Amino acid sequence: MLAGEQAVEGTRRNEPVSLRLVFSGDEFGYAIDLGLPQPGESIFSLAPIINRECIWSGLVLRPFALLVDRCAVALRTRDGSGEWQTIAQPVATFDSMMTEFADPRTAPG
Questions:
Q1: What's the distance, CA 4 to chain centroid?
Q2: Residue 75: which domain range?
Q3: Cα-based distances in Å from 43 to 18, 39, 40, 51
């Protein structure tokens, strides 16, 4: 393209804007998926929102290893018996579940 042998043409984005960050250690892992709101959904169209957050046990994210799962504003955790419990308090799309439930005395389950 720099040599001028091929034309430079722009394309239109077909997929939503998304940034996924994953941190994993021997005992636990954490993932967060950031994106932009759908057009008309927010007056802050370029402010990132959190689409999903997960905490799991072990090195690799697998469905059976999930401990906490947040999709949009809904948050669910596993109780002591391994059953899913939905948390009644929604989490705002711009807040992380890590900031909302950081105090172990007020953490669900």
A1: 41
A2: 20-100
A3: 19, 9, 7, 17
Q: How many CB atoms lie within 10 A of CB 53?
A: 19
Residue-wise pLDDT for 39-69, tens only, equals 766 666 677 889 999 999 999 889 989 999 9
Question: Model confidence at 4, in pLDDT bands (50, 70, 90)?
Answer: confident
Contact 100, 91 (CB under 8 A): yes
Q: Any alpha helices (H) in the chain, and if so which ranges?
A: 97-100
Burial of 97: CB neighbours in 10 Å, binned 0-12, 13-18, 19+? buried
Here the tokens at position 86 are: 């939905």
Q: What is the mean pLDDT of residues 67-96?
A: 88
Residue 46 lies in a domain: yes
Work out how many domains the chain is built from and give that number: 1
Residue at 34: amino acid letter: L
pLDDT band at 1 (very low <50, low <70, confident <90, very high): low
